[in-house]
Amino acid sequence: MTGRFIVFEGGEGVGKSTQSRLLAEALRGRGLEVVTTREPGGTPGAEAIRALLLGNEGPGWGARAEALLFAAARADHVEALIRPALARGAWVVCDRYLDSSRAYQGGGSGLEDADILTLHRIGSAGLLPDCTVLLTLDPAEAADRVRKRDAGAHDRIGGRAAEYHARVAAAFKRYAEAEPERFAVIAAQGAAEAVHARVLAAVDHLCA
Ligand code: TYD
Questions:
Q1: Tell me, what CATH number does 192's domain have?
Q2: 12 alpha carbon to ligand 1 midpoint, in Å?
Q3: Which position among 73, 94, 134, 198 has the lowest Cβ density within 10 Å, counted as fewest Cβ atoms?
Q4: Are 49 and 62 spatial neighbours (Cβ–Cβ below 8 Å)?
Q5: What is the domain extent for residue 105?
């Protein structure tokens, strides 16, 4: 039996990594093998590309080069880690994936959604998650969480203007509305344990 592939998506500071960890623990408690991973990154090659993308040194990347680098990192991640894990029956819980490229490089930076999907087809044979959990949070609360977490430091993309991040959030919402069977939209306000309970309820059908 192949495993299941669950992705957490959303803007900065909505609690994706905490919720990934809590979900992985809960699934392990049910006796499943669970691989937790993140994007960009998850394999040595993809982590090297992550450093190129998010480091603050140098002039940075144009939107097209950035989209290609994210797709290249994802191709390595899918081939070397995600597909083998699913093939042996493990569950994969990933912090960000394709819909981040659509929302940031598409919604935020203005590239065509169809082009980003084409890069994904070329790089990763179009592999999609079984469920994409979109965590949503009021932007002011998310910004507050990021301030507390990062103490004013941010990476090259997280540091972009509030309007950029508003376009990203709007894009995520559009994708979730367009594909309700693939997305679970979960309100991320409140205590982590309360959000976790909502997430578990949303992915429960995959355990059947
Ligand atoms: P990360 O530190 O993982 O951010 P966060 O804690 O907010 O999840 O950094 C990932 C950054 O890369 C984040 O700003 C979103 C951005 N990103 C893209 O722009 N496109 C993508 O395809 C992915 C996976 C991430």
A1: 3.40.50.300
A2: 8
A3: 198
A4: no
A5: 5-207
